[in-house]
Amino acid sequence: MNKDDLRKVLKPLIKECIKEVIFEDGALSTVVSEVVKGLGNPLSESRLPPPVVPKEMVLESKEQAQVRRNRLQENRNKMMKAIGSDSYNGVNLFEGTTPTPGPSATQYGALKDVVPNDPGVDISSFMGSSRIWKKLAGK
Asked: Could you give the CA distance from residue 72 to residue 99 in angstroms, rounded to a whole number?
């Protein structure tokens, strides 16, 4: 019997024996428990607290939205009265304005100070216009 024939016979037998020792005899669970004991600290899962959602971000009913819009309009009217309606030649300074956004839903991260509906910067023509970028991209 040559070396390759012996390997073909012995390899499946050895593989089966190792599986039997590891799984059926409990050697794997013993090794794992010993490793955990060796760590010294009990394993525990830590979780971050859920993000705080501001009241402004909570979905509101149609009635609540209408009440909020009415309050905003009343505040605008009060401000116009305080400024004086004859000031600025009767131009409504608050026409077409929206209130500044409150704190964002995510208080952490690189985009925490960016308004959620900010369109950002259009970079679609950035990569296609230069020969250098095409060369770097391998085109």
From this structure: 9
Q: Is the pLDDT of residue 24 over 80?
A: no
Q: How far apart are CA 44 and CA 3, in angstroms?
A: 50
Q: Identify whether the C-beta of residue 22 lies closer than 8 Å to the C-beta of residue 28.
A: yes
Give residue 85's pLDDT band: very low, low, confident or very high (50, 70, 90): low
Q: How far apart are CA 114 and CA 14, in angstroms?
A: 61
Side chain identity at residue 121, one-letter code: V
- Grouping H, G, I as helix, E, B as strand and the rest as coil, residue 46 is coil
Cβ count within 10 A of residue 77: 13
Tell me the pTM. 0.28
What is the spatial distance between Cα 49 and Cα 108, in angstroms, rounded to a whole number?
12
For the chain, give the percent of residues with pLDDT over 90. 1
> What is the Cα–Cα distance from 10 to 64, expressed in whole angstroms?
77
Please state, in angstroms and rounded to a whole number, the distance separating the CA atoms of residues 14 and 25: 15
Task: Round to whole Å and give the CA distance between 74 and 72.
Answer: 5
CB 113 within 8 A of CB 104: yes
